[in-house]
Design a protein that fits this description.
This protein is an alpha/beta fold. The chain contains nine helices and ten strands. It starts with 7 loop residues before the first helix and ends in an 11-residue tail after the last strand.
Length: 320
């Protein structure tokens, strides 16, 4: 028996009937027995699969429950001070967020998360701002296959590239994104610092803006994007930046947030690492951002969340 045979239909109907009648108080038992029966009818060889899956799930769930019970037991039996209890809980739960400081109505936290998941929630949430570092031309061409081009533009593995790909995936048109970027910049009367020729840059946008220039693009489900010009492409379309340019861009971001943020939560990734070629380690980038935010704390009226990609835990700790 498999899902496409006629015998599966009466089998499924029988399980559904028993699920809501005779087995209302122990439905999990019925589902387990029905699963085993299904694999037995499909072929005895599949029983190994279901037994391994059921056993491993049961053992792992038991282990998780044991650790949870052990944590509560130790806390209950020990005379921990408040700070000791917090440190113990952090060790057991693998805390993913840390409050750095609160001054007035401004607050800065650092957390392990995924900026793309924060950027594209499945349902409408409280309004938030997500900062996306981009190049100074605000290019929107992502080159997936670099073998097709002499000088590829936006890398699909950068935050810039991932953002563009996710925008398209969620129904946005590249042309509409370009229009929104140009409109946001022109509304504030910002002029490019230079304009390249087609001989200098074969593909992509030709107008280059100053580091720290911000274009606002509306997303979906109450998300607003601040595209922050951070790195400049060289003659080979390789992003180039420096620590001073990172600091300059962050200062510009705080100025803009102070005037336009309206107290909404803002999420920002580490900057100056990886392909921006500013030469900063993850730890250096975190220290630079937190130090600058502390220095310009009067510009922060709302929650700013520094987001470290959850798979980069081994590169920087939020508890140092």
């Amino acid at each position: 028996m498999n899902f496409t045979t006629l015998t599966f239909i009466p089998f499924l109907l029988l399980v559904i009937f028993l699920y809501y009648t005779a087995f209302r108080k122990c439905q999990w038992v019925l589902l387990l027995v029905a699963s085993i029966a299904f694999y037995l009818f499909s072929g005895p060889k599949y029983i190994v699969f279901i037994l391994v899956t059921a056993t491993s799930t049961y053992l792992l769930a038991g282990r998780i429950q044991f650790l949870h019970d052990e944590e509560k037991r130790i806390i209950a039996e020990s005379d921990f001070a408040k700070d000791e209890k917090k440190a113990f809980k952090k060790k057991y739960t693998g805390k993913r967020k840390r409050l750095l400081w609160t001054i007035g109505d401004g607050r800065v936290t650092v957390c392990y998360s995924d900026i793309m998941k924060l950027s594209f929630p499945k349902k409408k949430t409280i309004k938030k701002i997500v900062v996306i570092p981009v190049n100074t031309c605000f290019d929107t061409i992502v080159d997936e296959n670099i073998s097709l081009y002499d000088k590829p533009l936006v890398s699909p593995t950068t935050v810039h590239g991932l953002w563009i790909k996710n925008m398209v995936k969620h129904g946005f048109n590249i042309n509409d994104i370009d229009i929104a970027i140009d409109k946001s910049i022109s509304l504030r009367g910002i002029n490019p610092v230079k304009e390249l020729s087609r001989q200098e840059k074969k593909r992509g946008k030709l107008k280059c803006y100053e580091n720290g220039t911000i274009a606002v693009v509306e997303g979906k489900n109450n998300v607003e994007f601040y595209l922050l010009a951070l790195s400049e492409f060289d003659e080979n379309n390789k992003a180039q930046s420096s620590k001073d340019e990172v600091i300059k861009s962050l200062r510009s971001l705080l100025e803009f947030y102070d005037v336009n943020g309206q107290g909404y939560q803002m999420y920002i990734t580490l900057m100056g690492t990886g392909r921006s070629r500013a030469g900063l380690t993850h730890h250096d980038s975190l220290q630079t951002i937190t130090s600058l935010f502390s220095l310009y704390s009067e510009k922060i009226h709302g929650d700013i969340n520094i987001v470290i990609y959850k798979k980069d835990r081994d590169k920087v700790s939020i508890f140092d």
